[in-house]
């Protein structure tokens, strides 16, 4: 895929107060993103705007919260840190200048083991683990775009959590920089991590009280 071309602006710092003021045909950078003041949550992929799903359901929040707490407890005395959405992850190639960053995502949960990637605005560079809890509003196109971003920029593990199927699928980055899928884990099973040795997560605990 060709590199995005920044869109022409008269003033890159000019605030945008309404989502409908944006032109979906243009290419935007993180510098522009920082000046969007509207309430809608959006992500950038290759400079293109992706409007995020409406407020997540209570079940989505329960699942995310349980995974976040399990990871947080495990990492309490560990150099890796865990973060929960909303938390900006900027994926960059080369320059870390805001005007040269064209992909900004907000994973539901991410684990970052390199403290140099953490700053006041979120994460700059690929997290080690990304967790996405699927919602009915997620489209196949959206999921494919995120899969490609996480693979391209070197996320070591990508956990896809399905509240509908009560399952978890883990993609692990291989030596060639390609994701390899695990089996689909379901109730009564546990997942482990190649990034966080000795970590276990029981699916029965994750999906307890989720109908």
TrEMBL record:
Tagged with keyword Nuclease: yes
Q: Which GO terms describe its molecular function?
A: endonuclease activity
The Putative restriction endonuclease domain extends over 40-203
Per UniProt, which keywords does this protein have?
A: Endonuclease, Hydrolase, Nuclease
Could you confirm whether the keyword Nuclease appears in this record? yes
* Record-linked InterPro entries: Nuclease_put_TT1808, Restrct_endonuc-II-like, Uma2
* Cited PANTHER family: GLR1098 PROTEIN, RESTRICTION ENDONUCLEASE DOMAIN-CONTAINING PROTEIN-RELATED
Q: What is this protein called?
A: Endonuclease, Uma2 family (Restriction endonuclease fold)
Per the UniProt record, the source organism is: Pedobacter terrae
């Amino acid at each position: 895929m060709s590199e995005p071309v920044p869109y022409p602006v008269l003033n890159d710092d000019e605030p945008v107060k309404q989502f409908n003021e944006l032109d979906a045909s243009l290419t935007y950078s993180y510098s522009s993103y920082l000046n969007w003041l509207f309430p809608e949550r959006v992500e950038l992929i290759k400079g293109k705007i992706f409007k995020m799903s409406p407020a997540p359901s209570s079940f989505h929040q329960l699942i995310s919260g349980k995974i976040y707490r399990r990871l947080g407890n495990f990492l309490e005395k560990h150099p890796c840190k865990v973060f929960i959405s909303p938390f900006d992850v900027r994926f960059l190639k080369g320059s870390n200048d805001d005007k040269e960053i064209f992909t900004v995502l907000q994973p539901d949960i991410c684990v970052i083991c390199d403290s140099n990637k953490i700053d006041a605005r979120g994460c700059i560079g690929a997290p080690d683990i990304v967790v996405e809890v699927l919602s009915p509003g997620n489209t196949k196109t959206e999921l494919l775009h995120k899969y490609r971003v996480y693979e391209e920029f070197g996320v070591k593990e990508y956990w896809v959590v399905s509240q509908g199927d009560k399952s978890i699928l883990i993609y692990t980055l291989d030596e060639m920089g390609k994701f390899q899928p695990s089996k689909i884990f379901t109730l009564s099973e546990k997942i482990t991590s190649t990034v966080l040795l000795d970590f276990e997560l029981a699916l029965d605990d994750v999906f307890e009280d989720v109908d």
